[in-house]
Design brief:
six-stranded antiparallel beta sheet; 1 helix; globular; Lipocalin; 37% strand
Length: 459
């Protein structure tokens, strides 16, 4: 199978499971594709991008080494009452940072397209606790959201720009807007003017007409304290049809641009790169939208690029990467086939029970939940190991989009409109939050996908 491989050129800056059992799944090879020179790229080659700064290893555990001195004594001597100095007791073993779910606030973050805002909804109470502007001019047209491993969020404005919001108000900077004390939104109808909300941490302009995919990486884990720091934001932007997309990596604390690389071999339509997610090896995956979409993998350290062309019978739309490291691609208008890409064999598997789908989210019990459109509107779930359809939940909606799983295991589905559904997968019951404004979000809107990819217990 041919792959696209090459450099990410320009700018500066810095699968674990071999695939699921193919029960009920059929293999579909990706199409051959041409490189920018017009010749077929018939072999896979990882080529590292050249950057001005050495790339740091992300998501690795570091721990301090402690030496303990032990005094020598004669074990065969009689007890004379002398007490030997046996040294300090050994240090306790470091904690298992992955044993319990992360201590992050349980929110779902949903973008309101028409008024260029971001809603912060408590997944336990179904209360919208805050709403924030995503761009100064109110014309951002926001969509994708991504939550990091400490609970903070970024939202991508489709017309350009990434905005970060701090989840915990205790962590917001009360001096950010220049006025003493904390000023921040307290609900749906309390949206502060641009620049006045202390919990809007930063905004990073992205100089393109299309800016959709966004995802946090794992950051760096301190194995002694389990503290996570130095998380970065990965996104991409483009300007119309072609191969003009750029990869951007932003500093998670400041929004400073660390990397700007031209994705020379990423061919796309007018909407540019469409969805993105990280795998457990911390590779960044992206997909374009449409028939014969480009699937790309960018190495999280070297930025080497590999690409494949999806089967032409699928309109690639919904996108995620499961905890086995396999990208999932939902079809929004082709033959109604969901694809699962196996990076080990470089093949696309077609799951059974076809049907048009949109956003997807994995639950910690080994299921992939997918938003389904009419005539079978609602949710459907696939078993990660067998790829078989194992659950369907009908819901009274017309246009489904985003799917996410919260800390308590509830599955959320966001429609294009005012509603978000919280579904109990144990009995298919649901509750509704009805207060959004032309919501449009499909991505890792609760942070569960990133937690599972990084090896944490989600929920």
């Amino acid at each position: 199978m041919a792959v696209l491989a090459g450099l990410l050129v320009g700018g500066c800056g810095d699968a674990a499971n071999p695939g699921a059992d193919e029960v009920g799944a059929s293999e579909v090879s990706g199409s051959d594709s041409e490189s920018s020179s017009g010749t077929s790229a018939g072999s896979e080659t990882d080529t590292s991008a050249t950057t001005e700064a050495e790339t740091e290893t992300r998501g690795t555990e570091t721990s301090a080494t402690t030496e303990t001195e032990t005094a020598e004594g004669d074990s065969e001597s009689e007890d004379t009452g002398t007490k030997f100095d046996m040294g300090a007791p050994p240090d306790a073993p470091p904690p298992d940072c992955y044993a319990e779910p992360l201590d992050v606030p349980s929110y779902i973050w949903i973008a309101n397209t028409t008024d260029s805002t971001l809603s912060k909804i408590n997944t336990e109470t179904l209360e919208e606790e805050a709403r924030y502007r995503t761009r100064e001019d109110g014309m951002g047209n926001p969509s994708r959201t991504s939550v990091n491993l400490v609970g903070d969020v970024v939202v991508a404005n489709r017309r350009g720009g990434i905005t970060k919001v701090t989840a915990r108000t205790d962590n917001c900077d009360p001096e950010r807007n220049g006025v003493p004390g904390l000023q921040t939104s307290t609900g749906k109808d309390d949206v502060l003017p641009w620049g006045e909300d202390d919990c809007v941490a930063w905004h990073a302009p992205i100089p393109h007409i299309a800016n959709r995919p966004v995802a946090w990486d794992f950051g760096e884990l301190d194995a002694e304290t389990c503290e996570i720091t130095n998380s970065r934001v990965w996104t991409a932007g483009s300007d119309g049809v072609g191969a003009n997309a750029h990869l951007y990596i932003l500093d998670g604390e400041t929004g400073e641009q660390l990397v700007d690389q031209h994705l020379l071999y990423f061919s796309h339509g007018s909407l540019g790169p469409y969805g993105a997610a990280f795998d457990p090896e911390q590779n960044f995956w992206m997909i374009s939208m449409g028939f014969g979409a480009t699937l790309a993998r960018i190495d999280g350290e070297s930025l080497a690029f590999d690409g494949w062309v999806a089967p032409s019978n699928v309109v690639a739309y919904g996108f995620t990467v499961d905890s086995y490291g396999r990208p999932w691609i939902a079809d929004s208008g082709g033959d109604g086939v969901t694809l699962v890409f196996d990076p080990e064999t470089e093949t696309f598997l077609s799951v059974p029970e076809p049907g048009f789908g949109f956003g997807m989210g994995e639950s910690s019990d080994g299921r992939m939940w997918q938003a389904a459109s009419p005539p079978n509107a609602g949710l459907r779930a696939y078993d990660l190991d067998t790829l078989e359809l194992v659950a369907e939940v009908p819901l009274p909606l017309f246009q489904s989009r985003g799917v996410g799983v919260d800390r308590d295991g509830y599955v959320w589905l966001v429609e294009v409109g005012p509603r978000a559904f919280r579904v109990d997968p144990s009995d298919a019951s649901y509750q509704v939050y009805d207060g959004l404004d032309e919501a449009y979000t499909y991505s890792d809107l609760t942070g569960a996908a990133l937690q599972l990819a990084a090896g944490y217990v989600a929920g």
